[in-house]
Amino acid sequence: MSELVRTLCPYCGVGCSFDLVVDDNKVVNISPLKDDPVSEGRPCIKGFNCYQIVHSPDRVKYPMIRKKGKLVRASWDEAYKFISKNVKGLKPRQIAFYAAPPATNEASYLFQKIARDILKTNNIDSCARLCHAATCYALKNTFGITAMDAKLEDLAKADCILIIGTNPKATYPVAFDKVLRAKKENNAKIICARDWEDETCKLADCYVELKPGLEMAFLNSVLNVLVREGKVSVPKEVKEVLEGYHADKVAKICSTVKNCFFTVEDIEQVARLIGDSKKFVLMHGMGLTQHAYGAHNVFAALNIVLAKNGKSVPMRGKANIQGVGDMGCGPTGDGETISASIFLDPVKFLYVMHSNPAQSLPDLNKAYKAMKKMFLVLQTTFPNKTMGFANVVLPAASWAEQEGTFTSAESRIRMTGKAIEPLHESKADWVILDELAKALGKDYGYRSSEDILKEIKANLPAYNKINIENLKNKGSEFAYRPVAFRKFNPVKFPGFEDPTSKKYPLVLTTWRWPFHFCTGDMSRHSPTLEKLSPEPLCYVSVEDAKKNSLKNGDKVKITSKVGNVIIKVKVMDEVPQGLLVAPFHFHECLINKLMPLAYGPIVEEPNLKRAAVNMRKVK
Ligand code: SF4
What we know:
The chain is α/β, with parallel strands linked by helices. The chain starts with a strand and ends with a strand. 60% of the residues are buried.
C-alpha cells in the first residue's frame, strides 16, 4: 500500500505543491494536487520528475574531510571537530556563510544564527546575490518590502503583461499558465522584451528584441512616451531624467549596436499597449537583474509599474529563496556579500550550504584562485563542482527526507513533508547545523525543526502572524509585509558592461533550459530530464553560423577576455546575428568562465548576462 506525503517542489520559487508517493520506504512518484492553488494540478516537467533524484546513486553518502589533498571518509564527529579547529581563532571578517535552497526556513535561520551568534560575523549571503538581490534592493526602495508586491494570481487578472528578461514559458511554466489564462480570459496583451525570440516571445502579442544591456534605456523610453502622451504622470525629478530618453534618442543608442533591431516604432507600440491597460503587471527575471547595474534596471521597470498603478511579479529563482532571505541570510551591518568575500577581500573560511559557487559565480578562473586558499565547508545532497574545493563535505538529506517550511516567491509559506528517513549517513540540514553549533560550544536546545519555526515566528515581524497548526494541517500562510510606500527611483543608462570590440565582436549571454535547473545539481540526477537535455549547446544565428562554416553539432571555442570554453553549437533562426546564447547548467562546460567580473557598489550582484567574445570552429 503506497503512502502519500504532502510536499513542495524543490526546484523553483513558484512553489507548487504535490504528494510524494512512497512505496516500501522508497519515493517512487509524485501525485499532483488539483486543489493546489499554485499548480492547479499541473506541475511542470521538473516537478513531475523530482522524485527521481531522491534515490540517485550519485548522492553524497557520508561525511568527508580533505587529507593530503584528497577527500576521505570521516565520521560526523571528526567532520565537526575539523570545522571547529579551522574556524576558531579567525576574525569575523575572515569568515563567510553562503546559503541556498532547498534548505528550509528553519535550516536557513539556524545557519545565519550560527554565523552571527557564535562566530560573530555578518558576512552572510545567499545565492540570491547571483539572481535577484537587485530585485530585493529595488523593491525595498520602491515599496519598502523585500518581496514582490503581488500574488501569482494577479497575472491571471491582468490585461497587459510586460515580460522582460525572463522566459517563463520554459523556466516557470506554471506561472506562465496564468499569463495564458489572462490572454484567454481577459484578452490580455503580452509584451515580451528579450535578446532573442525564445519560447515565450513566440506567444507574445508584441516582441521587442533587446541586446543584453539595453533594458534600462528601453524601459525609460517607454515611460517617456507614456508621460509625453499624457497616459501617466510621474514626479518632476523622474520627468527630468526621462527627458534624455525620447524614443528617437534611444533608438539612436541602439543603432550604434550592431544588428540591433529595436526601433522608435517598437517603443511606441509597447507604450501604447501599456498606456491602454487598466491592470498592468510586470514580470521580470534575471535578464534585468544579472548586471552590474541590475538594481537600476529593476528601478526603471518598477517606475512603469508605479506610474500605471500596476503590480510586479519577479520570477524568483530557487524554491524557498524568498525564505532564505527572510531568515536573515543576507549581509547586515559590516557584513560583506559573497561577491566581496570571494573577489574583493577573500575570506579564510567559507561555509556553503546547498550551493555551487564554483559553477555559478562569474569570472570562474579568478574565483578558483581565491577558493583554493580558503577552508571550505560544503553541506550538500549531491556532489558538485564546488566539492573539488571543499575541505569538509557534509551529506545533507534530500528535501524529501526532512520537514520544514518553504516560502515561495509570492510569500506563501507551506510545509515540506518528510517522506522517508534520511538516506545513507545523511542528516536533515537543521540537525547538521544544530550538531555543529554544539561542537562550537552552543546548545540551543532545539528538539525539532518546529522548535526553530516557533522561534522564527516569535522573532520575525513578517512571520509573527503565521498559524503553525494551519501549516501542519497542509494549509498556506502568507508572510505579512504590507507595502510601506510607493517611491519612484529615476535612473540613467550607464553604458554597456563589456562592450564588443574588433577582438571580441560577439555578445554571449546565458539562459536557462526548460529541462534543467541552475547548475544542474538536482535536475541532472533525473534520468528523464537528463535524457531530454544531455549536453550543453550554444545557440548561434544563421548568419554567424554561415560566416564560420558551422552546422549543428560542430564544436567552437568561445573566448572572452577572462576565459574560454569549448561547446557544440545549434544554429537557430530565432537568435539574432552577433548574439550567442548558452546555458550554465553543465559542469562539463563552465560558461561563467567567460563572464568578466563586474558588479555595482551597492547591491554587488555581478553581471552574468553579457560577455564580449569571439568564436572559432575547432575539431
Ligand atoms: Fe516546480 Fe517551479 Fe515547475 Fe512548479 S513551476 S513544478 S515549483 S519547477
